[in-house]
Amino acid sequence: MATLQVELVAVERTIWSGEASMVIARTTEGELGVLPGHAPLLGQLADGGVVTIRTTEGEDLVVAAHGGFLSVSQQGVSILAETAEISREIDVERAREALRRAESEGDDPEALAAARRAQSRLRAAGQEA
Amino acid sequence: MAGNLRALRRRIRSTKSTKKIFSAQELIAGARIVRAQARVEASKPYAREITRVLSALASSASLDHPLLTERENPRRAAVLVITSDRGFAGSYNVNVLRRTEELLSLLRQEGKEPVLYVVGRKGETYYRFRNREMAETFTGFSEQPAYTDAQEVGRALIDVFTAGEDDDETGGAGADGVLGVDELHIVYTEFRSLLAQVPVAKRMAPLEVEEVEEFDYEREDREAGRTADSGVPTSYEFEPSAESLLDALLPKYVTTRIYAAMLESAASESASRRRAMKSASDNAEELAKNLARQANQIRQADITQEISEIVGGSDALVAANADD
Fold first, then answer.
1. Distance, in angstroms, between B166 CA and closest chain A CA?
2. Model confidence over A17-30: pLDDT tens digits?
């Protein structure tokens, strides 16, 4: 079976790379699934969005990616993010705390961005945001 | 004589304790280099990917983004200087600042007014002491820069660059009332090896996308046995449109370049510091050895004198007794 070579890279390090059977992401235009053999594509990930990587072992990796891009080429899929966290590494308590703090700060753009980041972390961890 | 000896001993003690500080600094810097190099390596995949994406985009989108177009009559140029927060790093800061001065005078010759943005406390003090105006300074992270620090710097620079777009011919601030700049430059220290760190000046905007290791991609593909027909340009689908993707991507690309420069500088800073501290502790060791020799000589002289005094005294006594 054909597989996708997936690389998830954040600015400070490569977070994950390996084989996957499917990648599900949300771009600014809408939800999108990538299967092997997908046409080349460049997309901007929606803020506060979550990317799901279904590995060849059938495991789902859920990732909170902020400020990211998705690039699909013949070589595979790369997900570029300014910061990214895999769901099992997310500290739910801290994310909630961050969300509360960001929401209490009102609506300057920084706080809104922080709130969106916290929401996507919670969503990736499978919690209600 | 005895007083002299005491002074010498005091100097030996203080030299030895400074030497301890130097060697501790040397060890710390050594550990930091390793970590800094690891971070430079870790940041490379992202830089490579973003360059690849940008190249793909550049071939499809029209390239009239403000960050890419040369402006007619550039009059002001922002210069970002990356220095360290702490001293004790040998000629590290001096070299960067000297390179900066060269760039500044070059810009002035071209009729552009340089605007300074400084990272690091050492650069800040240098320009403050000389009463030179700085647009903005960023301190507190020179040894271990995080991406958020680069974002902060990048945002400031891109804002001022965008503000420069509508400045008029006579040097007025234009419609937005903010006096911007027409070019962005960066001066940082490139880490070539543990022994060589070279200050370099680069222009960041208007931007030239650096074709990084283009050749390597193809080899990589071949090695992986993939049949990427690299001769045919891949036509990408874009979500959203290519233009708005470019809008979103370019500032991130600039920030990535700033981040990479900061990481390189951090590695260079530690390497420089380790070298400086190594020679400082060697010198302290040498000094302590010479001082110890002097002290021993004086001690010997003191003892010899004491003995000859005693002998002289007892000789005198014997002679006096014999006379009796």
1. 24
2. 999 999 999 888 88
pLDDT band at B173 (very low <50, low <70, confident <90, very high): low
- Report ipTM for this prediction: 0.82
Tell me which chain A residue has its CA closest to the CA of residue B152: A110
Interatomic CA distance for residues B275 and B197, integer angstroms: 11
Report chain A residues touching chain B, CB-CB < 8 A.
7, 9-14, 27-29, 32, 39-44, 67, 69, 71, 73-75, 78, 80, 82-83
CA distance B24 to B278: 10
**Residue A54 · residue A21 · CB < 8 Å:** yes
Q: Please report the pLDDT score of residue B234 as a whole number.
A: 61
Any chain A CB within 8 A of the CB of B144?
Answer: no
Q: Name the residue of chain A whose CA is nearest to B51's CA.
A: A80
CA distance B263 to B284: 31
B109 exposure class (CB count in 10 Å sphere: 0-12, 13-18, 19+): exposed
What is the tens place of the pLDDT at every residue in B245-294? Answer: 888 888 888 999 999 999 999 999 999 999 999 999 999 999 999 999 99
CA dihedral A58, A64, A65, A67 (to 10 degrees): 160
Give me the residue label for tokens 């006579």: B170
How far apart (Å, rounded) are the C-alpha atoms in residues A40 and A57? Answer: 25
